[in-house]
Amino acid sequence: MKALPAPARVDGDALPSARGRxxxxxxxxxxxxxxxxxLVLLTGLAVATGAGLGxxxxxxxxxxxxxxxxxxxxxxxxEGVSLVRMEPVVANLREPSDTWVRVDAALILExxxxxxxxxxxxxxxxxxxxxxxxxxxxxxEGASGLAFLREDLAERAHTxxxxxxxxxxxxxxxxx
Length: 176
Prior knowledge:
Number of strands: 4
Number of helices: 5
Order of helices and strands: HHHEEEHHE
Shape: elongated
Low-confidence stretches: none
Radius of gyration: 34 Å
Largest sheet: 4 strands, antiparallel
Distance between the termini: 70 Å
Strand content: 15-25%
């Protein structure tokens, strides 16, 4: 068995002592206080920025149809029609199942009371959700896919409303 060499002796003066570091001043202590001050400052800045953004975004509302839009709808379809926006419909597609689609649409209704219009829009949104979950992505691709979507949504809405939906207007379609 081989013997290990003896540890080398170190003089006391070769290693700095703790007392020597304190006496000469330590840059680590100063940078620790600076780091803490910077951390507190940045945290306060982040809180103020988040609060300001929250107040700003909290004031944003979806616009209701203005008089110009209502008059344009009435000019095209005649009196007694109304424009009702559906809630956005978000669903995953059948194939591939990790693909999501969001449809924002509006309904042009004829002869529907304002109280019943919201209920009808919610029912049509539910039908739209159920139907979107059965589609493969290939059915939504291209201009023909958009035309297919628009025609099928209009047919389903027309059936659900007993003919009171004149048209379904697709405002946005996002596939992710």
